[in-house]
């Protein structure tokens, strides 16, 4: 089956949905609770970079569920349109919880302080004064973002192992391309530079953990490979 194109966006190969499928989906939606999805109460637009190739930068759309004051979980899409593709998942921890992780685990996480204070992290169409208390919390958090579908390289399906993503940082490799930011700002009629100015007094962690944003100090990213391993088998029943 050939893939189809909507605008400049490639959609997965497959036949169009039938009327029967639409009716089934609508009926299921009316009868099922879909409780986990209904807990998503924030939309965040920001940018991310591949840990193994920092030159690849993407705009991301996080649909956020706050589980408690120390833990959030996000479904990540490549756009906020109805045909947006689910490209990964990000988990977000408070600095208190992050500090309790083993150092080898901390290497996989990135800080959010710069991303937020620089105005790159936005909640589209939500006034800054409304979201301000949440930003105060989020500047002191760390995230782990796995990308499972590399749509930026033209993949029509989720191919290969997941890729670890990193957050923008105030260093050469961590600066988001001007064109990407302008495109986002124009879409939502906002100014990243203005938000950066009004966010200068947002608090940050007392000490950014040196194991987070590991690539900044060590120049090394992380890539996942797939290995064949011996399968653990279930013992036969007596």
Automatic annotation (TrEMBL):
<protein>
    <recommendedName>
        <fullName>Oil body-associated protein 2A</fullName>
    </recommendedName>
</protein>
<dbReference type="InterPro" id="IPR010686">
    <property type="entry name" value="OBAP-like"/>
</dbReference>
<dbReference type="Pfam" id="PF06884">
    <property type="entry name" value="DUF1264"/>
</dbReference>
<feature type="region of interest" description="Disordered">
    <location>
        <begin position="1"/>
        <end position="20"/>
    </location>
</feature>
<comment type="similarity">
    <text>Belongs to the OBAP family.</text>
</comment>
């Amino acid at each position: 089956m050939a893939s189809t194109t909507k605008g400049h966006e490639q959609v997965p190969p497959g036949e169009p949905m039938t009327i029967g499928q639409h009716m089934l989906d609508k009926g299921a939606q009316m009868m099922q609770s879909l409780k986990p999805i209904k807990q998503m109460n924030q939309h965040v637009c920001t940018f991310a970079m591949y840990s193994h190739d920092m030159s690849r930068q993407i705009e991301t759309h996080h649909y956020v569920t706050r589980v408690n004051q120390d833990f959030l979980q996000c479904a990540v899409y490549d756009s906020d349109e109805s045909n947006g593709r689910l490209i990964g998942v990000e988990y977000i921890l408070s600095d208190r919880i992050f500090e309790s992780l083993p150092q080898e685990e901390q290497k996989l996480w990135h800080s959010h302080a710069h991303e937020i204070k620089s105005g790159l992290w936005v909640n589209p169409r939500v006034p800054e004064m409304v979201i301000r208390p949440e930003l105060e919390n989020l500047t002191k958090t760390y995230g782990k973002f796995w990308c499972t579908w590399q749509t930026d390289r033209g993949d029509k399906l989720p191919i290969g192992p997941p890729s670890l993503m990193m957050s923008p940082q105030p260093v050469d490799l961590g600066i988001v391309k001007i064109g990407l930011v302008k495109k986002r700002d124009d879409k939502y009629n906002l100014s990243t530079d203005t938000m950066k100015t009004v966010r200068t007094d947002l608090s940050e962690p007392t000490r950014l953990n040196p194991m987070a944003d590991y690539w900044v100090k060590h120049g090394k990213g992380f890539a996942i490979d797939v290995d064949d391993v011996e399968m653990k088998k279930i013992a036969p029943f007596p």
